[in-house]
């Protein structure tokens, strides 16, 4: 199974419509792949908060149509990254997954919003539902950027049948080491592929890490991009997931539902 991660640059001098057309053309160029992935919020930029409301669109909007057409023409499974979704109750950071027929088969509203009471965390609502895309060769769970820091989400996706995780992101350069470390950690602890696709360039003054990466179920980095715009192409062996889980069955030893301690821990002053 071949996967292509499109590490697109979000240039503020390029209009959203122009970037949408360019992204669709890049997807079509990857017709030799089985799965194509775009990054988080590539239409506007993950840190371009002031543009979120103006560029928000419904799930019937132009990005859905452009990506559906591109997936159908290339005959690929397409994780089209995420967009700013306008819903009646507010804005969401929403990922779209299309089948090779161009059908929208899964959406995922980002659960963990970044910002610590500012930015995305206050401008967007949080999702509350896990999602696994029904790719026959390799069912993959959906997570977005900051979600990568929350292992319990990925455990839930494993329980829902995921054998891989696709993680579009707009990860900043200043925390790039965390990006690589967390991608490998999620792969190792869940014995699943991780396909983490970031953006290049600068979003609203925030330099992006790039370095899209594909990690196998044993934690080996199969391919990693640089910082610039790039298409990362990698061959995956879907059988490797179950082989790894059979040879090293750590997931069977999980202990769930442990009770909390009866006595709260003391602070550094013994209180």
From TrEMBL:
Pfam families: CN_hydrolase (PF00795)
Domain CN hydrolase: 1-238
Protein's UniProt keywords contain RNA-binding: no
InterPro entries the UniProt entry points to: C-N_Hydrolase (IPR003010), C-N_Hydrolase_sf (IPR036526), UPF0012_CS (IPR001110)
GO MF entries: acyltransferase activity
Keywords, sorted A to Z: Acyltransferase, Transferase
Annotated family: Belongs to the carbon-nitrogen hydrolase superfamily. NIT1/NIT2 family.
Protein name in UniProt: Acyltransferase
